[in-house]
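I had to read the description of the data format several times before I understood it. For illustration, here is how one protein appears when written out as sequence plus structure tokens:
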Amino acid sequence: MEERYTIPAREARAEIVVVNSRFVATAAPALTVEAARAFIARIRAEFGDATHNVPAYLVGYGASVIAHCSDDGEPAGTAGRPALTILRGSGLGDVAVVVTRYFGGTKLGTGGLVRAYSAAVRAVLEVLPRAVKAPTHTVLMALPYRYLEPVRHLVDLHGGHILGEEFAADVTVTARFDAARLPHFQDDLQQLSSGGIEAVVIESNPAAILPLPPGAWRCSTDGG
């Protein structure tokens, strides 16, 4: 079954301070369990002098997700589980986070730790850029020059990306579309050209990464 879902576009970091303890949350895309483990190991090495480096990740999405978390020495259930709960509520897949804590000298208590680790993950999710992992089709079109600008506009209208243009007797345009949006583009292309231009699928990718523009995503990070 083809599946599309939101993932991190790239790594991001945010920091909060709770009763003198520093919490540095780093989040990143993790397309495989191996990638998630490598990310966690890298952050632990970067913050080797920290009191705790608490990891959580979701690899995959929905029913096929692999989830993991650890308290890394914090009292059981006060760190990793809250971090994972926030990830689950974010709507993201293929995501890993490490919350690094530098102890500030004052114990936060069980409830305080849960709130602090939850808040740290929320903070990094607020600044984490998103992308969409989705099936795509790449198409090839040969068209008369008079159709070039209208077709460019049509590609943009349907969220496609022009990958190349070759100019000869006709213009050959290569473009990539989210698979779900391609049929609507093809319908409009047929209408535009009165059936004279065909978009031929030359390649399909079941799991392409399509960046989202800033502001195009806003999802809950409250957890469940």
Notes: The chain is about 30% helix and 35% strand. The radius of gyration is 23 Å. The domain at 5-128 is CATH 3.30.230.30 (Ribosomal Protein S5; domain 2).
